[in-house]
Fold this sequence. Notes:
- The chain has helices at about 5-10, 40-50, 65-80, 85-95, 115-120, 200, 220-230, 235-255, 265-285, 325-330, 355-370, and strands spanning about 60-65, 105, 130-135, 145-150, 170-175, 195-200, 210-215, 290, 295-300, 305, 310-315, 335-340, 350.
- The protein is an alpha/beta fold.
- It has two domains: about 30-250, Type I PLP-dependent aspartate aminotransferase-like (Major domain) (Aspartate Aminotransferase, domain 2); about 265-370, Aspartate Aminotransferase, domain 1.
- The protein has a seven-stranded mixed β-sheet with strand order 1-7-6-5-4-2-3, sandwiched between helices. It has a four-stranded antiparallel β-sheet with strand order 8-11-13-12.
- It is globular and about 65 Å long.
- Bound molecules: 4'-deoxy-4'-aminopyridoxal-5'-phosphate.
- Keywords: Pyridoxal phosphate.
- This is Alliinase C-terminal domain-containing protein.
- GO terms for molecular function: carbon-sulfur lyase activity; transaminase activity.
- InterPro entries: Alliinase_C, Ethylene_sulfur-biosynth.
- It comes from Zizania palustris.
Amino acid sequence: MYEEFWRESGDAAELVIPGWQTMSYFSDVTNVCWFLEPELDQQVRRLHRTVGNAAVDGYHVIVGTGSTQLFMAALYALSPDAAGDPSASSRQRPTTRSGNQSCLLGRQCFCCDLQSYPAVTDFLRSGLFRWAGDASSFEGDNYIELVCSPNNPDGAIREAVLASEPGAGGKTVHDFAYYWPQYTPITEKADHDIMLFTVSKSTGHAGTRIGWALVKDREVAKKMTKFVELNTIGVSKDSQLRAAKVLGAVSDGYEAKVVGAPRLFDFGRRKMVERWSMLRAAAAASGVFSLPEETSGFCNFTKETAATNPAFAWLRCDGEDVDDCASFLRSHKILTRSGAHFGADPRYVRVSMLDRDDAFDIFVRRLSSLH
Ligand code: PMP
């Protein structure tokens, strides 16, 4: 969806990197995150100040190969075993930690993106933590709760459901991949301990593989940095510079001194409003689908009341003879992801709202023809 915007933005987000540049592992050895390009650090802070969606003063910026890597880094950093020498922690693991760490998900057992959080949590069979399912049914103090808001797949605004006693072991990670004005009203400047963001959803540059974490606590920031160091010895500088350029172009659009600069969030919101209204009309025309109720709120960024326009549609097949919505739609040449993948009823499917115009148009046309 965003290709059209970037195509029309001319050279605003263009970057040339000569052969001799970005060769070292290091970016700024005085920074906690020593592989973070200073330009990316500045542009991340500038964009959050422009949009007002997250606090940046007093926070450390940690860069990752997508926010996926930072999610893993956060689990590592918040697990008690990760406190020091990783070889020592693996020696202790079998006796002191087996099974009693947990990684949890926000309410209602909706996992994020192709059930990827449980998969990402468990694929290395870490002794530091394990996936424990839905946070609302968890009891205990030793947990890491993952809050995804707006939520993937249903776009709902979520808050943490577990409140740990002071001094207990409960920790929270906020995934704010979709907390941008094209998807939802910006109702507050979030200031949680660890907040994850990514260019994949904010500007559409998923292939650049750049995410960032805003981290309050210096020790946690150091451990997250250590994880990325052990995992990939840093993050592609070329990608960081490209992400910095792209984020800079977005902020330029909202600074009065850059006359006529293209405005990404205006474009994104216009597109999403249009697409959601097309989708709602198609669902109504067919009569056999339902969609989540539209909610709205006052957006502190646009200074207007705005509806939520989730990046995914959480579509329900209402027909009595359809109990597997994904198969039904597949037989009509519409590819979706079944609700079953998210721990939900297979009468639900998740549909991406961010495809190119031509694909989206075909999708709504096909959907409205089903009765
Ligand atoms: N968080 C959420 C909520 C997502 O939906 C996704 C990807 N779909 C990610 C994180 C992963 O982002 P990245 O491409 O930065 O790894």
